[in-house]
Amino acid sequence: MPAPRNDAPVDYALIGGGIMSATLALLLSELDPDATIHVYERLGETAQESSDPWRNAGTGHAALCELNYTPERSDGSIDITKAIAINEQFKASRELWDFLADQGSLPAGTPFLSPVPHMNLVIGEANVDYLRRRHAALSAHPNFADMLFTEDRSVIADWAPLLMDGRDDAEPVAATRSDAGTDVDFGSLTRSMFEAAKKRGVVVHTSVEVSSVRRSGKGWNLKVRDNRWNPLGERSTARARFVFVGAGGGALRLLQSTGIPEVRGFAGFPISGQFLRTFDPELVARHQAKVYGKADGGAPPMSVPHLDTRVVDGRTALMFGPFAGFSFKFLRFGSPLDALKTIRPGNVLPLLAVGRDNLDLVKYLVTELAATPSAKLRALQKFFPRAERGEWTMITAGQRVQMIKPDPKRTGSLQFGTEVITSADGSVAGLLGASPGASTAAYAMAQVVERCFGDAHPDWVARLREIMPSLARADADPHDAKPSGPV
Hints:
The protein has a single domain, classed as FAD/NAD(P)-binding domain (3-Layer(bba) Sandwich). The strands form 3 sheets. Strands 4, 5, 6, 12, 13, 14, 15, 16, 17 and 18 form a 10-stranded mixed beta sheet that branches. Strands 1, 2, 8, 9, 10, 11, 19 and 20 form an 8-stranded mixed beta sheet that branches. Strands 3-7 form a two-stranded antiparallel ribbon. The longest helix has 23 residues, at 81-103. Residues 478-487 have low confidence and may be disordered. The protein has helices spanning 19-31, 81-103, 125-139, 153-159, 161-164, 186-199, 251-258, 281-285, 338-341, 348-357, 359-370, 373-381, 441-453, 458-467, 470-475; strands at 10-15, 37-41, 113-115, 118-123, 148-150, 173-178, 182-184, 203-206, 208-216, 219-226, 236-245, 267-278, 290-292, 306-312, 315-325, 393-396, 400-407, 411-415, 418-422, 428-433. The radius of gyration is 22 Å and the shape is globular. The protein is α+β, with helices and mostly antiparallel strands. Strand 19 (418-422) and strand 20 (428-433) form a beta hairpin. It has 15 helices and 20 strands.
């Protein structure tokens, strides 16, 4: 599709060809079927950045195995409020996918979704005690009632044989397991959603890069360039009444270009990642699970080690990681100048404050960057003691940008979730942050619809909650949840 010309404005312009824009395009086409919706993707195909299946872990994040969603309180009890909220948000995604499949908009049988148990494995008495208390808290809630806990080594070996093969008998270990877990090929899902959107009249422009978004009257002007034929960088203008910026690591700079006050003070901290991967059929056959452990001190939640079953294009592999790295790029296919381009007078202090307050993170990144292949193999061997280097190859995963949020009390704070940014008039919105990201795309894009259009179209909000009943529970204040017993 050629770059758009300066014609009549479209109703909705969505920047970025990933799961977020695909989800929003389908929601808007359902709610406003006569609207004009255009999507702009800078690369030659959709789903090439974070939505590509090998750029993410594919975990259907439902808080079944992510220990960072269940922190320990000062009194020793386990806080499960965030886990409940994330679980409901992922349920909303499942409900939307089921709705689209029933409509015929997604392939029958959801081939992008594979049932894969979600597990935890912890080592050491203190960690075993934590996992026991976490299980007691979660399993008392109906969303997690099927979760199992064991300290029986033979049971763990039955659940995931590689975990116990060659493990020291003197190590205290424990595991949990939920058969409700999934592996998601977000690349396949994103492409299918865009195909469905195009059948509804959505126009998807690939190889078209948006460099800025500027207010123009009641709408917005987008400076665009067709990357296929325009090496000199000549730009044309597209116009839109509403703009959504779902450009992953490129979202911050584009939101800054809008001039909306809601994004002032925000900054980004890039973290890249690598995974060890194997297609060895014997190993794949002996490990059918996503197994998450505990992060080392100072490690960000998105760097929690995990040994995963992955199903991509019908082929099964195992992945272990992530191993964190650092790059000034904000996108996998970005520029080393990405980070510098987002520095503004209003976010310098938040950036400096995060550096001051997160020395453990800095130390962790330095350690990761200095890690040798032997050190990375030893990290894998904590999960799979008999792992050998020749069975695994290193792949580069996606680039993530952790959000730095302005904080009046501390100047700035590093955030490890995702956040929807909307302008006061509801004419522009964007998404910042990383995990749980793709898994909660339906919830995040429903937030965009409700914040930007809910007052004018309450019927749209009601319709979304018909399609995704879990939205109402996910929207509830998680702190209203009652504690699950004296744990």
